[in-house]
Structure formats: C-alpha cells, structure tokens
Amino acid sequence: MSDKEKKELDESEDIKEAVEDTKMSKSKKKRIAAENARRAQRAKKAMITVWAVLIPVAIVAAIVISAMMKYDSILDYSRYLTDEGFIKGLGDGDASIDYKSLTLAKADLLPDDATVQKDIDDFLERNESLSEDPARTADADDKVKLRYSSVMDGADYDASAEEGEDMKIGDETISADFDAALVGHAAGDSYTVDITFPADDVDADRAGKTATYTVSVDGIYDLPELTDELVSANSAGYATVEEYKQSIIDKYYEANLREAVNKAVSDNVAIKNFPTRYSRNLEKVLDSQYQDQMEQYAQYFGQSLYSEPYQLLGLSSEDEYASHLTEEAEEQTKMSVAAQCIFKGEGMTVSEEAVTEFYTEQGYGSADLEAFIDRYGKGYVYQNYVVNKAMDYMYENVNVTE
User: Fold this and answer.
1) What is the pLDDT of residue 17?
2) 214 shares a domain with 144
3) Domain hosting residue 203, numbered range
4) Predicted confidence band of residue 248 (pLDDT cuts 50, 70, 90)
5) 101 phi and psi, to 5 degrees?
6) Closest C-alpha among 133, 43, 75 to residue 375
7) What is the pLDDT of residues 159-189, one digit of tens each?
8) pTM for the predicted model, two decimal places
9) Which residues contact 77 (CB under 8 A, 6 or more apart)?
10) Are 197 and 306 in a shared domain?
11) Residue 237 belongs to some domain of the structure
12) In total, how many domains does the chain have?
C-alpha cells in the first residue's frame, strides 16, 4: 500500500468515526470537545513541533477537502523561499551544524513495557467478543454495551444511539457515579439511577443539576487470550506473539528515533543570521492550518466545536496562541535551516526530475504536483523535498550507541 493510500485509509477511518459521532447528543459532543481541549493542553509540550515543515506532503494531500482557499489571497507560502526551496538571504556562512557528530543512545529510543502493553491491550480490545451471559456481571474497567435515556428538569436530556453504545467503566464518559452504578449489572438488566453533576462541570448546561438515567445493559465485552493463533488470524503479516511484540517495539523505536533526531538537529544548529521574515510568514501558514483544522472538525461534527484556534490547542487566550505560533514557527525555521545545511553538506541537489520522483514515491502524479505548485508555490513544494531528503539522511545515518 502506498503512503497516499495509507493516508487516505486513515482519513476515511477518521471521517467514519466522526460520522458515527454525529449520532451523539449535543451535550455529549460538548463534553467530548471539552475533554479534547484538556488533553490537547496536556499534550502540548510533548508535540513534535516540526510536523508542519516535515510533512507538508500530508497537508497538501488534503487539498481536496481543505478549506484553505480563503487564505490564498493573503498567504504566500513560498514567500522568502527560492524556487529551489531554500530560504532566501540565508548564505552558506549564516548557519552550520555538526550533524555527523550527533549521537543517540539506543536505550533512550526503545519503548517501555507499559507502552508495548498498551498496544497489545488495544489489539485484544479490537478482537473482543460481546457476552450476553446473564451470569457475567460487570466489574471495574469492563467495557459494556448499553442503551440509556435521561430526563433533567422534566425534559428529555441525554440519550445513547438507538442501537446502543459501548462504554468503559472508569472512563467517566457520563460521570463517575454513572460508572459505579454499572458495576454488578449483567446483560438483560435494566435500572434507573439519579446522577447529580458537580457545580463546576465542563458542560455548563448540566452543572449542579440532577438527571435521572434509565439504563439497559445489552452485554459485557470479553477480551481474548493473546495467542499465536489470534495474532496470525488478526494481524498484518505476523504469525506469532513474539513477532507481533517485536513489531510494536520496532514501530516505537522508529518513531522515537525520528523525534530524537528532529530535536537533536534543531538543538544543535547554529544560526548567525536568523531568517526572521521567513519565520514570521511561517506563523501565518501555521495559523491558516489551524483554522483549516477547525473547519474540518465543524464539517465532521455538524457544528462548531471551537470558536477560536487557541481553543483547538487547549490554550487560554489569543495572546497565548500568538506566542505559540511564534515559538512553533521559530522551531520549524531552525529545522528548515538545519535541513538546508545537511542537504548542501551532503552534496544533494535539486532538480525537477528528483522532485517529481519524490512526489511520485508518495503516490502523487504530475497533475497533483502541478496543482500543489499552483496553490502553494514552487518554493514551498520544493522545500518539502529538501527537508525530507535531508532528514531521511539523518534518520538512516545518525550515530546510535548501544
């Protein structure tokens, strides 16, 4: 499967999940949106800030469904870039990096046992079966299939989809008290429970109020045992448990390697003449991408989950968002400068043939490439080639010690 096909598959799964989410009640969507914002805030410091420079292919791949047209009149993606994809005004003596001396420790790149186990748990969950045995009662951490409806202030409030929905006890999808009431029930049970929400609840419409839920339990999910037979029948090309576990380790090792190389390159590039104008223009590019993400969320969910981009990132204000854009743009600028140094240091060259071949390997034809250049400019599209070729060299050649 090509990279383009993999991406389209991932996007189709995202859209499928989003379509399923449209069955949710308004109150549930609001709770999920609030929780996503909190998670984004917790994850912000762990973000690989070079993503928008290193994967513009992924960005332009979404050209058909993106809403970025409205930004074209005010954005010039290739401003301050030469047609070869190099930053204008950045001379060979303006920046340097001793990239051949960068060294990483293998132990720092391997995933810990908990990370590997989490992937195994997810695999088992994807192959779970629904038990309708009335003798099987729900315990803490079980996943249950149920249907529910509720009344608040004398009116219908929240309800599951007609065919029911899955809920994991302990996730507090509705509340901790709702989860606690599920424990001990079995398939076929029906009951009512009063849930009083805290005064500071994330959903202001229910904060401090009490809702009466009517719940019907359809079944409890059982996880299979991890065996060679299960792996062989349900994984992509792995015959044994050990092979599957090694594939998980290899996946995280590769991801951690790339992240560590990105950070090492960014941290070790020395820039005498920082390209400020390029970095400021990159802030506008980043802002347009976040605006586009907001619009795609609104399309998927059928309503606007965020009114401002800073909410999408879990930030608290426009000022904090502006600072975030500046910091991210500066980090990405450092990466672009470092990649440019590595590209030239290895004697790599830019040609129309090489760039076309690069995009072809990503699953794009000549018509796609022409469309990308028309939309984003030759410099921006060619810079993607420069950065990717330089960083691929680093991923393959960085020193890793045992």
Assistant:
1) 47
2) yes
3) 129-222
4) very high
5) -95, -5
6) 75
7) 999 999 999 999 999 999 999 999 999 999 9
8) 0.72
9) 285, 375, 376, 377, 379, 380
10) no
11) no
12) 2
Q: What is the mean pLDDT of the chain?
A: 86
The whole-number pLDDT of residue 35 equals 52
Q: Both tokens of residue 110? A: 């391997």
Distance CA 170, CA 167 (A): 9
Q: Is residue 250 assigned to a domain?
A: no
Residue 13 lies in a domain: yes
Query: Do 71 and 184 lie in a common domain?
Result: no
Q: How confident is the model at residue 113 (pLDDT cuts 50, 70, 90)?
A: very high
25 and 141 co-located in one domain: no
Do 161 and 77 belong together in one domain?
A: no
Q: Per DSSP, which regions of 107-242 are E strands?
A: 129-131, 143-152, 155-159, 165-168, 190-196, 210-222
Query: Which tokens belong to 276?
Result: 């400020």
11 shares its domain with 72: yes
- Supply 52's token pair: 């928008």
Q: Is residue 9 part of a domain?
A: yes
Tokens, residue 50: 């070079």
CB hemisphere CA count around 34 (13 angstroms): 13
Q: Are residues 308 and 382 in the same domain?
A: yes
Q: Are residues 81 and 143 in the same domain?
A: no
In sequence order, what are the residues at sequence separation of 6 or more whose Cβ sits closer than 8 angstroms to the Cβ of residue 85?
350, 378, 379, 380, 381, 382, 383, 384, 385, 386
pLDDT computed for residue 304 by the predictor: 85
* Letter string b/e over residues 158-195, b meaning 16 or more CB atoms within 10 A of that residue's CB: bbbeeebbebbbeeebbbeebbebbeebbbebeeebeb
pLDDT in tens, 193-228: 999 999 998 888 899 999 999 999 999 999 999 999
Other beta carbons less than 10 A from residue 227's beta carbon? 11
Instruction: Quick: pLDDT tens for 8-37.
Output: 444 444 444 444 444 454 445 555 554 554
CB 180 within 8 A of CB 139: no
**Which residue in this structure is represented by tokens 């991890």?**
226
pLDDT single digits (tens) 43-81: 333 333 333 334 344 433 443 334 334 444 468 999 999
Whichever domain contains 134, its CATH number is: 3.10.50.40
